[in-house]
Structure formats: C-alpha cells, structure tokens
Amino acid sequence: MEKGCILITGANGEIGHGLIRYLAHEGLYKIVALDRSPIDDYQKSVDFYKGDILDKNLIDELNRKYNFTAIFHLAAILSTGGEKEPLPAHRVNVEGSLNILNLADDQSNRTKTPVVVVFPSTIAAYGFATPEQRIAAGKIDEHRYLDPITMYGINKLYIEHLGNYYSTRYRSFEDTPNLTRLDFRCVRLPGIMSSESLPSGGTSDFGPEMIHAAAQGKPYECFVTAETRLPFIVMPDGVHSLISISRASRRSLTKPVYNVGSFSISAGEIRNEVLKYFPKAEITFKPNPKRLAIVDSWPVDVDDSAARKDWGWRPEFDREGAFKNYLIPGITRRYASQRPQQSSPPLQSTDRA
Ligand code: SER
C-alpha cells in the first residue's frame, strides 16, 4: 500500500524537530518538510524543501508533486519576534497560513479526500486587560478573554477562525459539485519546554532558557518576575497533542479549537526546580516591562477538559515528571560534553523586545 504523505511547514523550528523525529521513527508516512533554513537533523526519509511559505511558486510545486493526507502547519513568527517586526510577522503568520489553506483546499477537491490541516495555536490568542484579571480568571476554557495584545496572538486567533471557515463554509456560494473541504484541527499550546532545542522569539522562552543556562553553568537573568506564572508543556507532550488530534475521529471533535495543558508554574518555581538539580545555578530576575506586559496578558492556566473528553488528550508528564524524567536528564546529556563556563555573561534571549 502506498504510504500517506505529510507536509510539515516550519520544519526546522522547535516543534518541527520533535514532530519529524516522531513521524520518521514511526515510518508510516512519507514526510515532506519545508523551512527557510535547512533542517539540521536531516533524516534520509524526509523530502526537504528550503524555502518560504510566502513563495507561491514553491507551494504550487508541492501541490503538483504530492497528495498530502495531512499538513502540520507550524511555520510562524512568535510573540516577541512579532512585536519587533509586526508586518513581516503578519505576512508569515497570516498570508503564509492562507497559502497553506489554499493548498489543502485545492488538494481536498482534487483527491476528493479532506486534507487534515493541523494548526498549533497558542495561549497568546488570549488577552487579559490587567494582571489582576488574569489571576482572578484562573484556569480558562477556549471561549473567553480572546482579546490578544500581540501581532502573533491576533494572527493565530484569526487563522483559528479562517481554518474553521475553510473547513465548513468556504466556497459555499459556488456551484461546485461534490465539493470536498479540508479538515481543520487546532490545539492552543501553552509555553513549550524542550530538552533538545531552545526557542527563539517567544515570550514564554524564560522557562526553557533558565534550565538550559543552568545546565551549561551559565548565569541567567530572567526577563519576568519570580511570581510570573504561565501554563507549560514539555515537547514530547506538545508533539503528542498534535499527532493525537490529527488522528482523532472527525466525529469525536466537537470544537474547531482545543486547549491542551500540562502544568502551570511560576518563574520562581522553575528556578526552585532547577536549583534541586543544579544547586549552583545563578538565576536572577530583571523584568523587561515590554515582555512582562505580554506574559501578563496570557492565562495562568488552561482548562483542557474538552480535549480530554473528546479525543482522549492526556499529557504524559506532570510538573514533577517533566523536570525529573524529561527536562533535566535530556538537557544534562545535551551539554555533558561542554565544560561549565562560570565566567560567561548571563544567558539572555537574543530576542529582547
Ligand atoms: N511560546 C509562544 C511565545 O512565547 C506562546 O505560545 O510566543
């Protein structure tokens, strides 16, 4: 039997790495990967295209060459990066997504099989007016406080709606017989922590940056306050959520967008976890008001009960297991060959707003 074919955009990003590794290991699908920079853990089984999702000729070429069963559309400019360059971010996050939706729409009609489009949205789709309001709201479901303050959050929320529109109503005034629409599925991810890679341009980056710095023996100056709390998930669970929703039966999905969560933790608590394993870690707090304002507009925790009920979502790692069984062993291995550099400058994100 011919293998199904999966397209991954933003393949060289953090989630792309994890997703390609997972799917390549499974060996069930042909993988086509697209990114502006080469994928560094190149897998022989992957057809890699170096290019931009804004390049319509390239998208047309992919459309001609392959019949995709699923598309994981990961390419995006994150929240801090998007505030630094809002219009380029809008182009990638919105026009790039539109190119992918049009590709999937065309293929769904051509093959008469709905292409599953999996879209990772974000806690940045939410927006609280004040830090007090976010604390009072606590764990929130998918439907309230959707007033994002960043270009990234606004773009993601819009594509949530646009994807759903392509899935349910697009071309409804056309007289096209047997119109087959794409099948849009979306999870709102919390901040992600990976042992294998560091994020860039995000505002939840303080979590992973703190742990990676400690493992390298580098001091870390955190850009939010010790009290700043966000929901986080570790990379294997993030990848697992995207794979699971892509494979859920269509009938079980009652919403176009689902929260997925794992644990909620403050920057001070991340520091305490890190100190358990790296007692000499030097972590200080020097809030950056612009980046702090972004985090202060995001929820402290998410209610993911709908995903649990509809398609059996359940993270493998809780807060303790995330550090003990995944982050600390993985990050320690990653830097094991490097000597601690006690005299280096504090590790800070290169993407300061
Ligand atoms: N990790 C994203 C960011 O910080 C939020 O989803 O921009």
Largest sheet: 7 strands, parallel
Report the count of strand segments: 14
Give the ligands present.
serine
- Given as residue ranges, the uncertain stretches (5+ residues, pLDDT < 50) are 341-353
Reading off the top of the CATH hierarchy, the class of the domain at 4-191 and 235-259 is best stated as Alpha Beta
Q: Classify the secondary structure makeup into a structural class.
A: alpha/beta
SSE pattern, N- to C-terminal: EHEEHEHHEHEHEEHEEHEEHEHEHH
**What is the 3D shape?**
globular
On the 0-100 scale, what is the average pLDDT? 93
* Gyration radius over CA: 20 Å
Kindly identify the CATH topology of the domain at 4-191 and 235-259.
Rossmann fold
CATH architecture of the domain at 4-191 and 235-259: 3-Layer(aba) Sandwich
- The number of helical runs is 12
Main features:
seven-stranded parallel β-sheet; single chain; alpha/beta; binds serine; 353 residues; 14 strands; Rossmann fold
Short description:
This protein has 353 residues and is of the alpha/beta class.
